[in-house]
Amino acid sequence: MKHSFVDRYAALDSPIHILEARTKLIGFVSLIIAVLFVPAEREFTFFAYFFLTAALMGISQIPLGFIVSRAVMMLPFVLLAGVGFLWRDPADAAGIYTLFLRSSLCLILLILLTNTTRFSELLHGLRKLRCPPILVLNLAFLYRYLFVITEEVMRMRQARECRRTGRAPVVEELRVLGSMLGAVLLRSFERAERMYQAMHSRGFSGGFPVLAPRRFSWRDLTFVAVIALFIVLSFSDINISRLTL
Amino acid sequence: MHIPDGFISTPFALAMDGLSGAAILYAARRVGRDLADRLIPLMGVLSAFVFAAQLLNFPVLGGTSGHLVGGALLGILLGPMAALLTMATVVIAQALILQDGGLIALGANIFNIGAVTSLSGYLVFRLLAGEQPGGQLLAVSAFVAGWLSTIISASCCALELAFSGPIPLRVAFPAMSGYYALIGLVEGGLTAGALTFLSHSRPDLIKGRIYAKMEARDWIGVLAFVALPIVLLIMGGSSRLPDPLQRLLRLSLDSAPGGHAAYGAALSSGLLIRVGASMALILVVIAAYRWIRRRAGR
C-alpha cells in the first residue's frame, strides 16, 4: 500500500529544512499575514513578495510540479470568485487579479512551510509555542494512526472491488459504503480501548517525551531577521524599488 | 469547502481564529474535567478515522465526488464538545498535511467544518431520535442530521464568503448550498449506514453515549460561539451589507406591480453573455482541474 501524500519532501536537506520548527512556523505565518495585509493597489509590493516566495521555493528544493499539483485545491474557489466577478461591474475585475495573486502566494507559503518540516517536528514546535496540549496530542495520534486506518480502509475497498460486479443501485452502494465505514469506526473504537489500557498500564501522564533534534541556532536568527526586515521594509513608506536598485 | 487564505477579509479571519481558539480551549478544559485520559486515544483515533474515511469517495456528478465529512457522526457519538476537538484536529491536519484550506482562514474553517457540523448534527439527532434511539428511527434521524449539517455548514461558508469576501451572495449562496444539498445526501446516507452498523454490532456505544453529556453552561457557551460570528459579520461587513440587501429590496419592489417589463429588459441585456461566460469559465476550470490531477497522478 502506498501513501506518500504526507511528508514526501520533508526529509530533504536544504537550508530551509534544517531550520528549527518554531522559526519556520513564526516566519511563514508572519509572511502569510503580511501578504494578506498588503493593500491591493501596491502592485510592486506584491511582486517583491512573489520574488521572495520564488527564492524560498528555489532554496527549499521542492519540485515546482508538486507545488502546482497541490495548488489545485484552490480551483473551486477561484471558479466561484470568477463567476462572481462576472456578475459584478467590469470595474471590479482588477480586484480578482490581486485576489488570486494574494491567495496563491499564501498557499505556496503554506506548502513550503509544511513540506520543509517533518510533521513530528511541526508538532514539537506547536507544543513549544504553547498550543493546547490536548490538541497537539490529538494531532500526534492522528498522524500515528493515519496510516494504520488508511491501510484498513484501502484493504476493505480492495476487497469490495474484488467481490462486486457491475454497479448496484445508488441506495445499495451507499448502504454498503456506510457499513464499511461503520466497520472501520468500530475497529477504531476498539483500538482506542486497547490503546487506553496500554497507555494506562505504562503510566501515561498526559504527554509524550519527544526528542528535539534541532536547536535554535544562528541560521534561525538569520532567517527570522531577513523575514522581519523584509516585512518592515515592505510596509514602511520607503520605496523598495529605490533600495534594491 | 475549505476556504483558502485571502478569500475572506483578514480581520474577520483573525477574529475567527481567536473565536475558534477560545472554543477549542473551552472544549479541552470541559473534556479534560470528565474523561480526559479515556477520551484522548479515542479522539485521536477517531480523527485519524475521519481523515482516512475521506479516501472512500462516492461519485456524485460528472467528475466530482462526495465523501464523509464526519462532523455529524462524531457529534452524535461523542457529543459536541469532544466532537469539536476531534474535528478541529482533522481540519488543522488537513491544512498542514494536504494544504486544504488556508492557515489564517483556519479559524473560519474549524467553525464551518468542525463546529457547525458537529453541533447541528448532534442537535438534529437529539431532537428527532430522543434519548434511546433504535431501528428505523435511528437511521432516518442520522440521515437527516448528516444532510442538514452539511447544508448548514455550506451555507455558513457561503455567507462568510459573501459578507466578508469577494463573492456576491447571489452566486455564493445558491452555488454552495445547492451543491452541498446534493453532497449532503451522501453524507446523510453514510452517517445513517455507519450508525446502523454500530447499533447492530455494539449497541452500547449508541445507547449509552457516556461521552455526550451537555450542561446548561455548555449550551450558553455554544450559543455565544454561534452568535458571535454573525455579529462580527454584520459589524465588519456593514459597509458592504446594505448594498446587496438594498439591491434585493429594489428588485422585489420593481418586480411587484407592473415592474416586470423593466426588470426583464435589464436582465436580458447582459444576461446571455454572462451566463455564457460563466459556463465557459466553469468548463475551462474543470478541464484544467482534471488535467492537473491526471498529470499529478493521484
Quick synopsis:
Chain A has 245 residues and is mostly helical. Helices cover 71% and strands 0% of the residues of chain A.
Count every beta strand of chain B, where a strand is a DSSP E run of 2 or more residues.
Answer: 2
Number of helices of chain B: 10
Helix content of chain A: over 70%
Number of helices of chain A: 10
Report the C-alpha radius of gyration of chain A, rounded: 23 Å
Features:
heterodimer; A: 245 residues; mainly alpha; 71% helix; B: 298 residues; two-stranded antiparallel ribbon; 10 helices; 2 strands; 78% helix
Topology, element by element:
The complex is a heterodimer of chains A (245) and B (298).
Chain A: H1 21-37, H2 43-60, H3 64-71, H4 75-86, H5 93-115, H6 119-128, H7 133-163, H8 170-201, H9 218-235, H10 240-244
Helix pairs in contact in A: 1-5, 1-6, 1-9, 2-5, 6-7, 7-8
Chain B: H1 10-53, E1 58-61, E2 64-66, H2 71-78, H3 80-98, H4 106-129, H5 135-163, H6 169-201, H7 203-207, H8 216-236, H9 242-254, H10 260-296
Antiparallel strand pairs in B: 1-2
Q: Would you give an account of this structure?
A:
- The complex is a heterodimer of chains A (245) and B (298).
- Chain A is mainly α.
- Chain A has helices spanning 21-37, 43-60, 64-71, 75-86, 93-115, 119-128, 133-163, 170-201, 218-235, 240-244.
- Chain A starts with 20 loop residues before the first helix and ends with a helix.
- Chain A is built from ten helices and no strands.
- The longest helix of chain A is centred in the C-terminal third of the chain and has 32 residues, at 170-201.
- The mean pLDDT of chain A is 81.
- Chain B starts with 9 loop residues before the first helix and ends with a helix.
- Chain B has ten helices and two strands; from the N terminus they run H-E-E-H-H-H-H-H-H-H-H-H.
- In chain B, a hairpin with a 2-residue loop joins strand 1 and strand 2 (64-66).
- By secondary structure, chain B is an all-alpha fold.
- In chain B, helix 1 (10-53) crosses helix 3 and helix 2 crosses helix 5.
- The radius of gyration of chain B is 21 Å and the shape is globular.
- Chain B has a two-stranded antiparallel sheet.
- Chains A and B meet through helix 1, helix 3, helix 4, helix 5 and helix 7 of A and helix 1, helix 3, helix 6 and helix 10 of B.
